[in-house]
Fold:
Amino acid sequence: MSEVTEEQRQVNSPAHPLRQGGRLWRQLLRVGFAAGRGRPGDRLRFWALIAAAAAIALVSVGMVVASATYDGRAARNQARGPIITDRQQDAVALWRETFDAVGEVQHTVVYIEPVKPGAQPPPGLVRWPAPGEVMLSPELAHQGKSEQITSRYGSYAGSIAKAGLVSPSERLAYVRPSKPPTTRESESWFYTTGFGQSYPMGEILYGRPLSQLLLALGAMTGVPAVALLVVASRIGSSTRDRRSSLLQALGGSWWHRAVVNTGEAALPIAAGTALATVPLVAASTIDLRIPPTGYLLNSDDLRSAGPMLAIALMVSFAISLAMVVVLHRVDRSGATTRPRSFSSKVPRWRLVGCGLGVAAVVCSQYVRGVPGLVVFAIGTVVMWALLPSVAVTACRGLGGVIAERGFRTGHPGALIGGRWTVAHPGVIVRLALAMVIGIGLVSQIQVWNSRLGEKAAVARSAEARLGDRVVSVQSRDLTPSVIGDLSRSLPAGSHVFALKSFPERQSVLLQGTCPALRSLSLPCPAKPEKASSVDIRISAITSWYGRSLQTQVAPSQLALDELNGSLIVVTETPGQQAEIEEAAYALVPAVNVESPGETWLVGAANKDRMNNWTLLFGSLGLALLLLTAAISAGAEFVRIRHVLAPLSVLTGSHSIFRSVVFWHLTLPLLISTLIATIVTAWHSLFFIAMVQEGRFSWGVLGAAAIGCTLLTISVGFLGGRTAIRAARQWRPTAD
Structure:
């Protein structure tokens, strides 16, 4: 057995002040509670802990909300999915799915036709639509109002209830054709015995796996929240040193100090955790739309996940409190309670960890698919978190050079500032952390949002010049008689052409009446002839449907090639696509009507909506990082003004304060910003090369670097002013 020291015997004695049982714990908790609301540094820490606890709680709650939402979406999608059968005699309904778009946002159109009386309609419908009726999701009816969506597929009969939608923001339509499909048409329909089988349709088709959402939330918002908590817990004060010395003199152990720290941090952390319940209660009461994504949270999912949300809040509180207590350990001598952030040198493991993060980023290019993105994300998080330590290592070496030069030249500001940088590199790390991660975050958001694609960019340009003056109409049910009816029901000034493609020759043949061809400034050849016209609509048809375009006067009736044919409707003025679609859907169910390049624009818009989640998480993370920088700078100001104030007596000038702050804060942070800018440029360009998509904006990176530079200069300016103000009020005391 090891020998028991005299100090341990005294502490273990029943008469010792720290061996008074439950009464002592209550006293220590009260000491910590009172200490948390004392001097300026304590008050700053109090509010910082509230903000950090709220951020941690919101991230924790967000992960539970995401999981509950995905579970609810999967359950509702399974409940409405058709149970397909090959046995016609067992079927209760015919079912067919197609797609359409409103405002470049694609939605699902489901055609249904009951074949047996008494069959149950899909979930979300109180009854089967009557022939020629349509039922729309509330979001589709609202967003498509300007495009006459309520009359596009038939007579509007009401809304789809939430039970039939994976989310309240889903765009979905149930349509019953005006007459049952013919035997030929029914070949494109499915027979279903009911509903209740998982089927990929609607919004489910465009979603991302839950793991990717949680990874983005954790990396872009969770990491900055943890950084805020670390900085908030590391804000020191002079009273904490004296309290630690007293507990050490009384024989208190780390456990007693932990109790005091618990009492000091419990109230602000509880308050911050409680703040996170405000948006949670609101989202559990009504369906809230999440900006800028436009997604509507289903309040039913949140209410069903109530117990898990309560557990998440309690776990968040416990984790935040535990981190604050653990980060508040003191040195072995017990002489200080300031955080063990490293005061003499940067720990080697931080440098090694940053190197491993960079290695993970580099090696991610050799791992394909989602696992490669996961490795890239993990390496990115590690690199961003530890890069400030690398920057500060360089700054610390520079600080020694500055201090030596200040000593040789008799420059007191450089001497003091350089020595402080060498002695307190952790201060620079906490300030640089926000800027380093902020620069990387802004650039990553820009790169992700730039992933539009070449085809989509061409389509966007064509849409700006052409509008919807060229529209394709495709369906295998477009018979000559239907084409004739469609031609007569189109808006005035519209002309219909038959387009036949020859993929092997990359050419197309455009057939139409002579007046239709002349509307495009084309002749009326009886045999196929190469088109030569400067009309922008001819250029669009050539660009999107074939490099070589030939024209010909059509026979008495337009007819389509079932495999390689489609109708082309051209108009004189834009803005008539909605009328064309309404006329086409009235004649042929499940017809496909779109402008050239619309498929690419819809895909780009869907990608933009996915990128909006990146923008949301990134913006929240950036806001937390800026708050972290502000709190860290505020804490440093509190320390600087007390330490520098006596120098006014020795120097008789206030210029030394600005000089010390420049060499200790401004210059190291400028160096950190430069290193972060270089690493971020490499990181973003590497990502673009890895995914073979997107573009890098030097302007965005430059703006972020300039912003951090201005923040750095502001930190130095405010630090100098704070020290000057404290010097004017300083009086010597007997401490």
Residues 468-594 form one domain. Confidence is low (pLDDT under 50) at residues 1-8, 332-343.
